[in-house]
Amino acid sequence: MRIELLALVVSVVLPACMSDQPPSRESRQSGACLIGGCSDEVCADQPEVSPCIWRAVNACYQTAMCGRQPDGTCGWNPTPELTACIASYSNHR
Q1: What is this structure's pTM?
Q2: Total number of domains in the chain
């Protein structure tokens, strides 16, 4: 059962959060928020750096929108696709 569930996640969720050519970093930023980090996995209001350690979940952010959130901070817009993609990795740490 667990292998079947993992196969379902891989075949349904992962294609939704990855594409051949993700949109440019600039086209995914708004509200004076910036995409940064070594793998473009950080959304912040100033340039940020991160360790260059690839984590599979970083693929989820390659098409995500970075922008001003309702509380005024910068963050990733929590679309159903982004949320599902991140969730698909949360049980595989």
Answers
A1: 0.69
A2: 1
